[in-house]
């Protein structure tokens, strides 16, 4: 069972993002405020859960949470301000969309930069330690996976319905065969051989 809070006497929002390592699509973040007495043994880091388990937990999280929100930073923003800053931006937007203002943020990772004035704690591997961060990771991943499945219909041949835009063999073969789409991140190296191909 993951920990319900870092400190019990305040409203904490767990924040996480998905899609940083992808070659295509936006980076997506979620923020979740859970009740202080919330307990669910199945809530865990989204990467450790099966797709069916993640999908079944989404409605449970949304119906139980005091507040939740999902936000994106676009491919254009990723290319303009870099993926790390775009991840921070997506998390900031998710917090701003919450129906209730938290007293404190629990951020998955080792650093955070934001325009928000809310205090925060960065927690390495936080999605496997705190329920609110794990819940945020589940909401963000299910949302982004669904988005990339829809994008796969618009841009077939890259395997996004299975790889969600991550640099798999199928995805890279699609890039070699079909080139880049408008939702590929232009600032990323798409192929390991790119430098050799260019010169």
Features:
199 residues; alpha/beta; Nucleotidyltransferase, domain 5; five-stranded mixed β-sheet
| Strands side by side in the biggest sheet | 3-2-1-4-5
Let me know the largest β-sheet.
5 strands, mixed
State the end-to-end distance: 53 Å
How many DSSP E strands?
A: 5
* Computed Rg: 17 Å
**Helix fraction bin:** 25-40%
Number of helices: 7
Using the alpha-carbon principal axes, give the shape: globular
How does CATH name the architecture of one domain?
Answer: 2-Layer Sandwich
Q: Give the low-pLDDT segments.
A: 194-199
Which sequence of SSEs, written as H and E, runs from N to C? Answer: EEHEHHEEHHHH
Overall mean pLDDT:
94
**Helix/strand class:** alpha/beta
Strand content: 15-25%
CATH superfamily of one domain: Ribonuclease H-like superfamily/Ribonuclease H
- CATH fold field value of one domain: Nucleotidyltransferase, domain 5
Please give the CATH class of one domain.
Answer: Alpha Beta
GO molecular function, one term: manganese ion binding
Family: Belongs to the RNase HII family.
GO cellular component, one term: ribonuclease H2 complex
Cofactor: Mn(2+); Mg(2+)
């Amino acid at each position: 069972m993951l920990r319900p809070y870092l400190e019990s006497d305040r409203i904490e929002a767990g924040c996480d993002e998905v899609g940083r390592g992808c070659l295509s699509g936006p980076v997506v973040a979620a923020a979740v405020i859970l009740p202080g007495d919330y307990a669910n043994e199945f809530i865990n880091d989204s990467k450790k859960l099966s797709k069916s388990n993640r999908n079944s937990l989404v409605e449970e999280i949304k119906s139980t949470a005091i507040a939740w929100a999902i936000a994106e930073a676009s491919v254009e923003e990723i290319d303009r301000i870099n993926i790390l800053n775009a991840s921070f931006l997506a998390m900031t937007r998710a917090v701003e969309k919450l129906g209730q203002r938290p007293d404190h943020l629990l951020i998955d990772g080792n650093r955070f930069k934001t325009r928000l004035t809310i205090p925060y704690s960065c927690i390495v591997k936080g999605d496997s330690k705190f329920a609110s961060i794990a819940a945020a990771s589940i909401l963000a991943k299910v949302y982004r996976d669904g988005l990339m499945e829809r994008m796969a219909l618009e841009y077939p041949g890259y395997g996004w319905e299975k790889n969600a835009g991550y640099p798999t063999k199928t995805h890279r073969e699609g890039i070699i065969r079909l080139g880049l789409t408008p939702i590929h991140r232009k600032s990323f190296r798409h192929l390991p051989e790119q430098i050799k191909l260019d010169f």
